Amino acid sequence: MPRPMGHIRILFSSRVLLDLEEADQVFKEKGVEGYRDYMLCTGAYEKDRDPELGCRRFNKGPLFDMALALNRLNQKAGKPLVELGMSAKDTVDTGLVLEKNMNATALAAAMTYSTSTSGGPVSEKAHRAFKTDLFLTRSDSDAQAAIDLGIAAAVMNFPPQGTYDFDHDLHPIHIVVDGDAVAFGDSAEVRYREALDTGKTPEEGLQIYVDGEKRDMGQPVEQGPFTALLAKLTQLNAEFPKGEAPFSLSLLTARGTEARARAIATALDHGIDFNGDCAYVSGAAKSDWLAAYRPHVFFDDQQAHLGPGAHFCPTGRVPYKTNGPMYEYLKRKELAANTNVHPKVAEAQVNAQDIAASPAPAAGQQSAKPSGPAIKPS
Protein backbone atom coordinates (compact mmCIF):
# COMPACT_ATOMS: atom_id res chain seq x y z
CA MET A 1 0.00 0.00 0.00
CA PRO A 2 1.47 3.43 -0.92
CA ARG A 3 2.14 5.84 1.91
CA PRO A 4 -0.33 8.73 2.25
CA MET A 5 1.10 12.18 1.57
CA GLY A 6 2.84 13.46 4.66
CA HIS A 7 2.79 10.07 6.35
CA ILE A 8 5.63 10.08 8.90
CA ARG A 9 7.45 7.01 10.24
CA ILE A 10 9.28 7.41 13.55
CA LEU A 11 11.58 4.72 14.91
CA PHE A 12 12.15 4.85 18.68
CA SER A 13 14.90 2.88 20.36
CA SER A 14 13.71 0.85 23.34
CA ARG A 15 15.90 3.01 25.60
CA VAL A 16 13.86 6.14 24.91
CA LEU A 17 10.49 4.41 25.41
CA LEU A 18 11.45 2.55 28.60
CA ASP A 19 13.84 3.53 31.39
CA LEU A 20 16.65 1.10 30.59
CA GLU A 21 19.51 3.19 31.99
CA GLU A 22 20.23 0.77 34.84
CA ALA A 23 19.98 -2.17 32.43
CA ASP A 24 22.52 -0.52 30.15
CA GLN A 25 24.88 0.00 33.08
CA VAL A 26 24.53 -3.66 34.08
CA PHE A 27 25.40 -4.69 30.53
CA LYS A 28 28.52 -2.50 30.55
CA GLU A 29 29.67 -3.80 33.93
CA LYS A 30 28.60 -7.47 33.86
CA GLY A 31 28.38 -8.35 30.18
CA VAL A 32 25.78 -10.37 28.31
CA GLU A 33 25.12 -12.99 31.01
CA GLY A 34 24.73 -10.41 33.77
CA TYR A 35 22.40 -8.40 31.55
CA ARG A 36 20.31 -11.50 30.77
CA ASP A 37 19.97 -12.30 34.48
CA TYR A 38 18.99 -8.69 35.16
CA MET A 39 16.32 -8.62 32.44
CA LEU A 40 14.85 -12.07 33.15
CA CYS A 41 15.24 -11.66 36.93
CA THR A 42 17.17 -14.88 37.33
CA GLY A 43 20.18 -15.64 39.52
CA ALA A 44 21.03 -12.73 41.82
CA TYR A 45 18.07 -10.72 40.48
CA GLU A 46 15.33 -13.27 41.12
CA LYS A 47 13.80 -11.14 43.88
CA ASP A 48 13.10 -8.35 41.36
CA ARG A 49 10.76 -10.43 39.19
CA ASP A 50 7.39 -8.85 38.56
CA PRO A 51 4.73 -11.52 39.27
CA GLU A 52 2.46 -10.32 36.46
CA LEU A 53 5.10 -10.10 33.73
CA GLY A 54 7.33 -12.94 34.95
CA CYS A 55 10.40 -10.74 34.38
CA ARG A 56 11.59 -7.24 35.21
CA ARG A 57 9.13 -4.36 34.91
CA PHE A 58 10.44 -0.99 33.71
CA ASN A 59 9.22 2.54 34.17
CA LYS A 60 8.51 4.67 31.11
CA GLY A 61 11.38 6.41 29.38
CA PRO A 62 11.81 10.03 28.23
CA LEU A 63 9.78 9.70 25.01
CA PHE A 64 7.04 7.36 26.19
CA ASP A 65 4.53 10.18 26.62
CA MET A 66 5.44 11.71 23.28
CA ALA A 67 4.85 8.35 21.57
CA LEU A 68 1.53 8.05 23.36
CA ALA A 69 0.54 11.56 22.25
CA LEU A 70 1.42 10.65 18.65
CA ASN A 71 -0.77 7.55 18.89
CA ARG A 72 -3.67 9.61 20.25
CA LEU A 73 -3.15 11.94 17.29
CA ASN A 74 -3.73 9.00 14.93
CA GLN A 75 -6.86 8.03 16.83
CA LYS A 76 -8.23 11.56 16.70
CA ALA A 77 -7.52 11.91 12.96
CA GLY A 78 -9.05 8.53 12.21
CA LYS A 79 -6.10 7.65 9.96
CA PRO A 80 -2.41 6.79 10.41
CA LEU A 81 -0.69 10.16 10.24
CA VAL A 82 2.31 8.74 12.06
CA GLU A 83 3.57 5.17 12.15
CA LEU A 84 5.53 4.22 15.27
CA GLY A 85 8.25 1.57 15.47
CA MET A 86 10.63 0.30 18.13
CA SER A 87 14.22 -0.87 17.70
CA ALA A 88 16.22 -2.87 20.24
CA LYS A 89 19.61 -4.59 20.31
CA ASP A 90 18.39 -7.53 22.39
CA THR A 91 18.45 -11.24 21.67
CA VAL A 92 15.19 -13.19 21.58
CA ASP A 93 14.97 -13.90 25.33
CA THR A 94 15.73 -10.39 26.60
CA GLY A 95 13.76 -8.92 23.71
CA LEU A 96 10.73 -10.77 25.05
CA VAL A 97 11.11 -8.81 28.30
CA LEU A 98 10.82 -5.57 26.35
CA GLU A 99 7.78 -6.82 24.45
CA LYS A 100 6.06 -7.88 27.68
CA ASN A 101 6.72 -4.45 29.15
CA MET A 102 5.36 -2.67 26.09
CA ASN A 103 2.29 -4.92 26.02
CA ALA A 104 1.54 -3.88 29.61
CA THR A 105 1.32 -0.18 28.60
CA ALA A 106 -1.06 2.03 26.66
CA LEU A 107 1.36 1.78 23.72
CA ALA A 108 0.73 -1.96 23.30
CA ALA A 109 -1.13 -1.62 20.00
CA ALA A 110 0.64 1.55 18.83
CA MET A 111 4.04 0.09 17.91
CA THR A 112 3.16 -1.38 14.54
CA TYR A 113 6.79 -2.23 13.75
CA SER A 114 9.54 -3.73 15.89
CA THR A 115 13.08 -4.77 15.03
CA SER A 116 15.78 -6.39 17.19
CA THR A 117 19.41 -6.62 16.10
CA SER A 118 20.79 -9.22 18.57
CA GLY A 119 23.49 -6.85 19.75
CA GLY A 120 24.33 -5.22 16.42
CA PRO A 121 23.80 -1.61 15.30
CA VAL A 122 20.59 -0.42 13.71
CA SER A 123 21.55 -1.00 10.09
CA GLU A 124 20.81 0.76 6.84
CA LYS A 125 18.69 -2.27 5.87
CA ALA A 126 16.57 -1.85 9.01
CA HIS A 127 15.91 1.79 8.14
CA ARG A 128 15.12 0.92 4.53
CA ALA A 129 12.66 -1.76 5.62
CA PHE A 130 10.79 0.67 7.90
CA LYS A 131 11.35 3.68 5.61
CA THR A 132 12.44 5.70 8.64
CA ASP A 133 11.78 9.45 8.58
CA LEU A 134 12.94 10.13 12.15
CA PHE A 135 15.10 7.97 14.42
CA LEU A 136 15.30 8.71 18.16
CA THR A 137 17.88 6.82 20.17
CA ARG A 138 20.29 6.89 23.10
CA SER A 139 23.18 5.61 20.95
CA ASP A 140 25.65 8.12 19.50
CA SER A 141 26.89 5.68 16.86
CA ASP A 142 23.39 4.66 15.72
CA ALA A 143 22.30 8.30 15.44
CA GLN A 144 25.47 9.19 13.52
CA ALA A 145 24.92 6.32 11.10
CA ALA A 146 21.34 7.43 10.45
CA ILE A 147 22.39 11.05 9.86
CA ASP A 148 25.02 9.87 7.38
CA LEU A 149 22.25 7.95 5.55
CA GLY A 150 20.24 11.16 5.24
CA ILE A 151 17.73 10.23 7.97
CA ALA A 152 16.72 12.76 10.62
CA ALA A 153 18.05 11.41 13.93
CA ALA A 154 18.91 12.55 17.43
CA VAL A 155 20.59 11.25 20.57
CA MET A 156 18.03 11.83 23.32
CA ASN A 157 19.00 13.14 26.72
CA PHE A 158 17.69 11.27 29.72
CA PRO A 159 15.88 13.92 31.78
CA PRO A 160 16.90 14.77 35.34
CA GLN A 161 13.43 13.84 36.61
CA GLY A 162 13.27 10.59 34.61
CA THR A 163 10.05 11.13 32.64
CA TYR A 164 7.77 13.89 31.41
CA ASP A 165 4.08 13.87 32.09
CA PHE A 166 2.30 15.39 29.10
CA ASP A 167 -1.38 15.67 28.49
CA HIS A 168 -1.69 12.79 26.01
CA ASP A 169 -4.65 14.46 24.36
CA LEU A 170 -2.74 17.72 23.93
CA HIS A 171 -3.19 18.89 20.36
CA PRO A 172 -1.19 19.68 18.29
CA ILE A 173 2.13 17.88 18.76
CA HIS A 174 4.66 20.65 19.41
CA ILE A 175 8.06 20.02 17.79
CA VAL A 176 10.78 22.65 18.25
CA VAL A 177 14.00 22.71 16.24
CA ASP A 178 17.16 24.78 16.05
CA GLY A 179 17.82 26.38 12.67
CA ASP A 180 21.44 25.96 11.61
CA ALA A 181 22.71 22.35 11.57
CA VAL A 182 19.20 20.99 12.28
CA ALA A 183 16.37 22.52 10.20
CA PHE A 184 18.98 23.75 7.71
CA GLY A 185 22.53 22.78 6.83
CA ASP A 186 25.53 23.74 8.96
CA SER A 187 27.52 26.01 6.62
CA ALA A 188 26.21 29.17 8.33
CA GLU A 189 27.11 27.67 11.73
CA VAL A 190 30.65 27.19 10.42
CA ARG A 191 30.65 30.80 9.16
CA TYR A 192 29.66 31.97 12.65
CA ARG A 193 32.36 29.99 14.40
CA GLU A 194 35.04 30.97 11.89
CA ALA A 195 34.02 34.60 12.28
CA LEU A 196 34.54 34.35 16.03
CA ASP A 197 37.92 32.72 15.36
CA THR A 198 38.88 35.54 12.99
CA GLY A 199 37.60 38.57 14.89
CA LYS A 200 39.89 40.32 17.34
CA THR A 201 36.96 40.56 19.76
CA PRO A 202 33.68 38.59 20.03
CA GLU A 203 31.82 41.71 18.87
CA GLU A 204 34.01 42.03 15.78
CA GLY A 205 33.60 38.33 15.02
CA LEU A 206 29.82 38.59 15.33
CA GLN A 207 29.76 41.53 12.95
CA ILE A 208 31.81 39.58 10.38
CA TYR A 209 29.21 36.81 10.59
CA VAL A 210 26.24 39.19 10.31
CA ASP A 211 27.78 40.93 7.30
CA GLY A 212 28.18 37.57 5.58
CA GLU A 213 24.58 36.57 6.31
CA LYS A 214 23.28 39.90 4.97
CA ARG A 215 25.35 39.49 1.83
CA ASP A 216 23.95 35.96 1.25
CA MET A 217 20.36 36.69 2.30
CA GLY A 218 19.10 35.81 -1.17
CA GLN A 219 20.90 32.46 -1.13
CA PRO A 220 19.20 29.85 1.09
CA VAL A 221 21.27 27.79 3.49
CA GLU A 222 21.62 24.26 2.12
CA GLN A 223 19.35 21.47 3.32
CA GLY A 224 20.17 19.95 6.70
CA PRO A 225 19.40 16.73 8.61
CA PHE A 226 15.79 17.70 9.46
CA THR A 227 14.86 19.63 6.30
CA ALA A 228 13.07 16.75 4.57
CA LEU A 229 11.21 15.74 7.74
CA LEU A 230 10.01 19.30 8.41
CA ALA A 231 8.90 19.72 4.80
CA LYS A 232 6.97 16.45 5.07
CA LEU A 233 5.30 17.58 8.30
CA THR A 234 4.40 20.84 6.55
CA GLN A 235 2.76 18.81 3.75
CA LEU A 236 0.80 16.82 6.31
CA ASN A 237 -0.35 19.97 8.13
CA ALA A 238 -1.56 21.41 4.83
CA GLU A 239 -4.14 18.63 4.54
CA PHE A 240 -6.03 20.05 7.53
CA PRO A 241 -8.13 23.22 7.93
CA LYS A 242 -6.45 26.26 9.43
CA GLY A 243 -6.17 25.89 13.20
CA GLU A 244 -6.52 22.09 13.08
CA ALA A 245 -3.02 21.10 11.93
CA PRO A 246 -1.76 18.04 13.85
CA PHE A 247 1.75 19.44 14.31
CA SER A 248 2.96 22.77 15.61
CA LEU A 249 6.44 23.39 14.19
CA SER A 250 8.53 26.02 15.97
CA LEU A 251 11.97 27.45 15.28
CA LEU A 252 14.18 28.25 18.28
CA THR A 253 17.45 29.76 17.13
CA ALA A 254 20.27 31.84 18.57
CA ARG A 255 20.16 33.99 15.43
CA GLY A 256 19.23 37.60 16.05
CA THR A 257 19.12 41.09 14.55
CA GLU A 258 20.07 41.10 10.85
CA ALA A 259 20.75 37.33 10.67
CA ARG A 260 17.05 36.49 11.06
CA ALA A 261 16.00 37.24 7.49
CA ARG A 262 18.12 34.50 5.91
CA ALA A 263 16.62 31.89 8.25
CA ILE A 264 13.08 32.87 7.23
CA ALA A 265 13.96 32.87 3.53
CA THR A 266 15.66 29.48 3.87
CA ALA A 267 12.63 27.87 5.53
CA LEU A 268 10.32 29.15 2.79
CA ASP A 269 12.69 27.98 0.04
CA HIS A 270 12.80 24.46 1.51
CA GLY A 271 9.03 24.21 1.85
CA ILE A 272 8.98 24.46 5.65
CA ASP A 273 6.11 26.29 7.34
CA PHE A 274 6.91 27.09 10.96
CA ASN A 275 3.25 27.33 11.91
CA GLY A 276 4.08 27.55 15.62
CA ASP A 277 6.50 30.17 16.90
CA CYS A 278 9.75 31.52 15.50
CA ALA A 279 11.97 32.58 18.40
CA TYR A 280 15.22 34.42 17.64
CA VAL A 281 16.82 34.65 21.06
CA SER A 282 20.08 36.38 20.04
CA GLY A 283 22.25 34.22 22.26
CA ALA A 284 19.93 34.21 25.29
CA ALA A 285 19.28 30.93 27.11
CA LYS A 286 17.03 28.68 25.04
CA SER A 287 15.99 26.89 28.24
CA ASP A 288 13.99 29.98 29.30
CA TRP A 289 11.85 29.65 26.16
CA LEU A 290 11.48 25.89 26.67
CA ALA A 291 10.44 26.42 30.29
CA ALA A 292 7.64 28.72 29.16
CA TYR A 293 6.38 26.65 26.21
CA ARG A 294 7.05 23.04 27.37
CA PRO A 295 6.99 21.45 23.87
CA HIS A 296 6.80 17.72 23.22
CA VAL A 297 10.43 17.67 22.03
CA PHE A 298 13.34 19.98 21.15
CA PHE A 299 16.19 19.22 18.74
CA ASP A 300 19.50 21.10 18.66
CA ASP A 301 23.07 20.36 17.65
CA GLN A 302 24.69 21.72 20.83
CA GLN A 303 24.56 20.02 24.20
CA ALA A 304 25.00 23.40 25.92
CA HIS A 305 21.39 24.18 24.97
CA LEU A 306 20.02 20.66 25.40
CA GLY A 307 21.23 19.94 28.93
CA PRO A 308 19.42 22.87 30.59
CA GLY A 309 16.42 22.39 28.30
CA ALA A 310 16.03 18.77 29.38
CA HIS A 311 14.58 19.99 32.67
CA PHE A 312 11.47 21.11 30.81
CA CYS A 313 11.00 18.80 27.82
CA PRO A 314 12.70 15.90 26.02
CA THR A 315 15.75 17.15 24.13
CA GLY A 316 17.81 15.48 21.42
CA ARG A 317 21.26 16.23 20.00
CA VAL A 318 21.48 16.09 16.22
CA PRO A 319 24.94 14.87 15.09
CA TYR A 320 26.88 16.59 12.32
CA LYS A 321 27.08 14.68 9.06
CA THR A 322 30.42 12.98 8.49
CA ASN A 323 32.54 15.04 6.07
CA GLY A 324 30.02 17.91 6.20
CA PRO A 325 31.05 21.53 6.83
CA MET A 326 30.98 21.24 10.64
CA TYR A 327 32.84 17.93 10.52
CA GLU A 328 35.64 19.54 8.51
CA TYR A 329 35.65 22.62 10.75
CA LEU A 330 35.94 20.53 13.91
CA LYS A 331 38.72 18.50 12.32
CA ARG A 332 40.64 21.72 11.64
CA LYS A 333 39.98 22.95 15.20
CA GLU A 334 41.21 19.65 16.61
CA LEU A 335 44.41 19.92 14.61
CA ALA A 336 44.85 23.56 15.64
CA ALA A 337 44.41 22.67 19.31
CA ASN A 338 46.96 19.86 19.06
CA THR A 339 49.54 21.91 17.15
CA ASN A 340 48.78 25.38 18.58
CA VAL A 341 48.29 27.01 15.16
CA HIS A 342 45.58 29.29 13.81
CA PRO A 343 42.56 27.41 12.35
CA LYS A 344 43.24 28.88 8.88
CA VAL A 345 46.77 27.49 8.96
CA ALA A 346 45.35 24.19 10.23
CA GLU A 347 42.95 24.16 7.27
CA ALA A 348 45.88 24.42 4.86
CA GLN A 349 47.66 21.62 6.73
CA VAL A 350 44.56 19.40 6.60
CA ASN A 351 44.27 19.99 2.85
CA ALA A 352 47.95 19.20 2.38
CA GLN A 353 47.62 16.01 4.44
CA ASP A 354 44.57 14.94 2.43
CA ILE A 355 46.37 15.51 -0.87
CA ALA A 356 49.47 13.66 0.34
CA ALA A 357 47.37 10.74 1.61
CA SER A 358 45.31 10.42 -1.58
CA PRO A 359 46.29 7.65 -4.00
CA ALA A 360 47.39 8.74 -7.45
CA PRO A 361 44.28 8.95 -9.66
CA ALA A 362 43.95 6.79 -12.72
CA ALA A 363 44.25 8.51 -16.08
CA GLY A 364 41.29 10.79 -16.68
CA GLN A 365 39.98 10.51 -13.09
CA GLN A 366 39.68 13.17 -10.39
CA SER A 367 41.47 12.59 -7.10
CA ALA A 368 39.22 12.19 -4.05
CA LYS A 369 39.81 13.14 -0.43
CA PRO A 370 39.76 10.31 2.12
CA SER A 371 36.83 10.28 4.50
CA GLY A 372 38.87 10.88 7.69
CA PRO A 373 38.04 9.92 11.27
CA ALA A 374 34.57 10.35 12.67
CA ILE A 375 34.22 13.38 14.94
CA LYS A 376 31.81 13.22 17.87
CA PRO A 377 31.27 16.84 18.97
CA SER A 378 29.91 17.35 22.44
Task: Note down, in words, how this protein is organized.
- The protein has 378 residues and is an alpha/beta fold.
- The chain folds into three domains: 8-39 and 60-156, Rossmann fold; 173-317, Rossmann fold; 322-378, no CATH class.
- Helices cover 43% and strands 13% of the residues.
- It has helices spanning 14-17, 21-40, 64-77, 92-103, 124-130, 140-148, 179-183, 187-198, 202-215, 227-238, 260-269, 286-293, 303-309, 325-339, 343-357, and strands at 8-13, 82-88, 111-116, 134-137, 152-156, 173-177, 247-253, 278-280, 297-300, 315-317.
- The chain is globular.
Please count the beta strands (DSSP E, at least 2 residues each).
10
Residue ranges: pLDDT <50 for 5 or more in a row? 348-378
Largest sheet: 10 strands, mixed
Number of helical runs? Answer: 15
Distance between the termini: 41 Å
How helical, in percent, are the residues? 40-55%
The total number of structural domains is 3
SSE run: EHHHEHEHEHEEHHHHEHEHEHEHH
Radius of gyration: 22 Å
Which percent range describes the beta-strand content?
5-15%
Do you know the CATH topology of the largest domain? Rossmann fold
- What is the mean predicted local confidence, pLDDT? 86
CATH C-level class of the largest domain is Alpha Beta
Strand numbers in spatial order across the main sheet = 3-2-1-4-5-10-9-6-7-8
- The shape, in one word, is globular
Structural class: alpha/beta
CATH hierarchy: architecture of the largest domain: 3-Layer(aba) Sandwich
Pfam families: 5-nucleotidase (PF06189)
InterPro entries: 5-nucleotidase
Enzyme class: hydrolase
Protein name: 5'-nucleotidase
